[in-house]
Amino acid sequence: MKHYEVEILDAKTREKLCFLDKVEPHATIAEIKNLFTKSHPQWYPARQSLRLDPKGKSLKDEDVLQKLPVGTTATLYFRDLGAQISWVTVFLTEYAGPLFIYLLFYFRVPFIYGHKYDFTSSRHTVVHLACICHSFHYVKRLLETLFVHRFSHGTMPLRNIFKNCTYYWGFAAWMAYYINHPLYTPPTYGAQQVKLALAIFVICQLGNFSIHMALRDLRPAGSKTRKIPYPTKNPFTWLFLLVSCPNYTYEVGSWIGFAIMTQCLPVALFSLVGFIQMTIWAKGKHRSYLKEFRDYPPLRMPIVPFLL
């Protein structure tokens, strides 16, 4: 069996960092990363991006050396991705924050609304309903992170946690301040508006959970297999007939319902910003589906049926 020699250079400076002798032809990029870590312990595998071209795409961990377009002496270029943190940790931090922060405002802890309002309670039913809905949403997200989601990437850059937490925690504090404010006024159309909004919120939360379960069942535990998601017997998954990422469609729908329920501007802005971000993600996933699967359903749009 012919062995490979693998030379690893710094993608920026072209400095030789490592030379691996007698590498098995069927070695994966993940195994090469482990070998590289032995000579450079500061760069653990999750920090490493190995590529065939200094400015090219990162090779996947499961790529096999002999199937790459290289000779028996392969040159790979290394890029440091920076300190990494697990997706589970990021999600738990992102979602636990808003849950806790919102409740501080709901219970009107001291130093928020003035001394005379400390630990008082709102007389408006919608305020209590909004707290239940907000808390339910984030408890659901935390439980899904622990028991439902299967991540294709184990880690993400540590710096992202600060950016993500600023977004989630900041918006949670902003909307909670106004919804739980002693001077808060209920929605214009009263109970009818609240009931309609609650129905939208509950339907979209059930839909979002149904999609997450369908996506989970699509990927066996521990694998990175990608398949085309299709509707199941669950009616909430039928949205797959029209969009590639119905989980995002339902997520945006939930926040629109919450915005109608509370009639609160910060909630509407959070919904808008979330919609813009999720549209970017959905378009990216839609593109990768089209690229990967020739028989991908042509009727599907990324996030909004028939439009977007």
From TrEMBL:
It is found in: Endoplasmic reticulum membrane. GO terms for cellular component: endoplasmic reticulum membrane. GO terms for biological process: sphingolipid metabolic process; very long-chain fatty acid biosynthetic process. One of its GO terms (molecular function) is very-long-chain enoyl-CoA reductase activity. Pathway: Sphingolipid metabolism; Lipid metabolism; sphingolipid metabolism; Lipid metabolism; fatty acid biosynthesis. Its EC number is 1.3.1.93. Keywords: Acetylation, Endoplasmic reticulum, Fatty acid biosynthesis, Fatty acid metabolism, Lipid biosynthesis, Lipid metabolism, Membrane, NADP, Oxidoreductase, Phosphoprotein, Sphingolipid metabolism, Transmembrane, Transmembrane helix. It catalyses: (2E,7Z,10Z,13Z,16Z,19Z)-docosahexaenoyl-CoA + NADPH + H(+) = (7Z,10Z,13Z,16Z,19Z)-docosapentaenoyl-CoA + NADP(+); (2E,7Z,10Z,13Z,16Z)-docosapentaenoyl-CoA + NADPH + H(+) = (7Z,10Z,13Z,16Z)-docosatetraenoyl-CoA + NADP(+); (2E)-hexadecenoyl-CoA + NADPH + H(+) = hexadecanoyl-CoA + NADP(+); octadecanoyl-CoA + NADP(+) = (2E)-octadecenoyl-CoA + NADPH + H(+). The keyword Membrane applies. Pfam families: Steroid_dh, TECR_N. Involved in both the production of very long-chain fatty acids for sphingolipid synthesis and the degradation of the sphingosine moiety in sphingolipids through the sphingosine 1-phosphate metabolic pathway. Catalyzes the last of the four reactions of the long-chain fatty acids elongation cycle. This endoplasmic reticulum-bound enzymatic process, allows the addition of 2 carbons to the chain of long- and very long-chain fatty acids/VLCFAs per cycle. Belongs to the steroid 5-alpha reductase family. This is Very-long-chain enoyl-CoA reductase. It comes from Myotis myotis (Greater mouse-eared bat). The lineage of its organism: Eukaryota, Metazoa, Chordata, Craniata, Vertebrata.
